[in-house]
Write a structure and sequence with these properties.
Blueprint: H1 4-22, H2 30-51, E1 56-59, H3 62-71, H4 88-94, E2 106-111, E3 117-123, E4 139-143, H5 153-165, E5 168-173, H6 194-206, E6 212-217, H7 219-231, E7 237-243, H8 249-256, H9 259-279, H10 281-284, H11 290-293, H12 299-310, H13 316-323, E8 336-341, H14 354-358, E9 363-368, H15 387-402
Parallel strand pairs: 4-5, 4-6, 6-7, 7-8, 8-9
Antiparallel strand pairs: 1-9, 2-3, 3-5
Helix pairs in contact: 1-2, 5-15, 12-13
């Protein structure tokens, strides 16, 4: 078999000869041209050998593992990250620019037991050809990340994928982030799932005959995993997919406090959270020291001064332990697929719960070598779908249309 080294050397030589004969290179002599071509060949070789790889699929049971292999071919395919931006931080930074058309949402406010209100954005998909009956049209509940709303590009992409499948979508916006008035001095956190429970119950009552599954991104995925760990079998969700979740908050926070990641991500997210606090200052200042909160420089400081106090934790460490889904994975009783990138600085690879997943037949973990945080860009110019979108679409379809095969995964 001819080696890759030989092929690239031949390619470099042939391209050099061709360009030297066809193009007036001017100042760029043949030596420089050969150097450029040689570098390109070396980069291509490195990319194909070290970057483009099949993801690692881990499951706690053979039944779920085989279901994913059969119904979701994407889990067995090589993931080719966009070749010019496969580095994790670049993928993370560029992901919001992979745009999608805004969805046509129907807005709804739900009143919570404590007097607060929760906003839902509905995409009804009334033009669905495959599921024309609205009463039985499958519903997908979407949970955005830490400061995200229904307008995030990754949410809009999943709405598009659901529309193509003929499904309805409901986007759960955390309190105070989507323009609605904050009625009580309470926002949200990854550990508290009361609002999520209220939303799921509301959707079930509204569409009793429609199957329901859910997808969560980043903190939305953490909240969803914590919800499943608390509820066990007492949920109407048929299946769940989680993207770029932070499984151990202590490890996530420590990773984001490294100098470069603090500069690129930590400070920005802290300022976004502070902007939300400032927007609802008139309600929150009655219960919290807002001036102290606004001086926080990191997510940890923000949580110490605001989040952990709001939800009644003795210390911030107590909150971080309770917010970490890794402690509840053993109690999950619903099929849950989790996608993480090994180079995600928000959720470092050593904190991905491989061993915990192996102990629960209802769990599966898909790990790519690259992809960053909610990145997973692919293609020459990634403006359409991403690897994450393909995982979502295939898994959603499998759960809704072949979900019977997922009954009793422990068998």
């Amino acid at each position: 078999m001819i080696s890759l080294d030989f092929n690239f050397n031949v390619l470099t030589r042939d391209l050099s000869l061709y360009l030297e004969n066809q193009v007036k290179v001017g100042l760029f002599g043949s030596g420089v041209l050969s150097l450029v071509l040689g570098f390109s060949a070396a980069y291509a070789y490195y990319y194909l050998i070290s970057v483009a790889k099949k993801p690692q699929l881990i499951s706690g049971g053979k039944k779920f593992y085989q279901f994913l292999r059969d119904q979701c071919p994407v889990v067995s395919e090589i993931y080719y990250p966009t070749f010019w931006c496969w580095e994790s931080r670049i993928q993370t930074v560029l992901r919001p620019f992979v745009t999608a058309k805004p969805g046509s949402y129907k807005f709804e406010l739900i009143r919570a037991e404590d007097g607060g209100q929760i906003s839902l954005d509905w995409f009804d998909n009334d033009d669905s050809a495959s599921h024309p009956n609205a009463a039985t049209r499958p519903t997908v509940l979407l949970l955005p990340g830490l400061t995200g709303t229904s307008r995030e590009s990754y949410i809009l992409h999943m709405v598009q994928q659901s529309r193509d499948l003929g499904y309805r979508c409901a986007v759960f916006n955390n309190r105070g982030v989507s323009g609605e008035t904050l009625l009580t001095p309470r926002t949200y956190c990854a550990a508290n799932t009361e609002d999520l429970e209220a939303v799921i119950e509301h959707i079930q009552r509204t569409n009793e005959d429609a199957p329901l599954m859910a997808a969560g991104v980043s903190m939305g995925g953490m909240m969803l995993a914590n919800y499943l760990g608390r509820k066990g079998r007492e949920t109407c969700l048929k299946g769940v997919v989680v993207f770029s979740a932070g499984w151990d908050v202590f490890e996530c926070t420590a990773s984001l406090e490294k100098p470069l990641d603090r500069f690129l991500f930590n400070s920005y997210l802290t300022s976004c959270l502070q902007a939300g606090v400032d927007r609802h200052k008139s309600v929150l200042e009655k219960s919290y020291d807002i001036d102290h909160v606004m001086k926080a420089k990191t997510l940890r400081e923000f949580d110490e001064r605001f989040t952990s106090i709001m939800f009644g934790y003795p210390t911030n460490d107590d909150y971080y332990h309770d917010a970490s889904p890794i402690h509840r994975l053993k109690s999950v009783q619903v099929p849950m697929l989790c996608l993480n990138a090994a180079d995600d600085v928000f959720s470092p690879s050593h904190a991905i719960p491989v061993e915990a997943v192996k102990q629960n037949p209802n769990l599966a973990l898909l790990i790519t070598c690259h992809g960053g945080h909610i990145g997973f860009l692919e293609g020459l110019w990634p403006r359409q779908s991403t690897y994450m979108d393909r995982v979502f679409k295939q898994f959603a379809k499998a759960v809704i249309e072949q979900g019977g095969d997922l009954n009793d995964l422990s068998s």
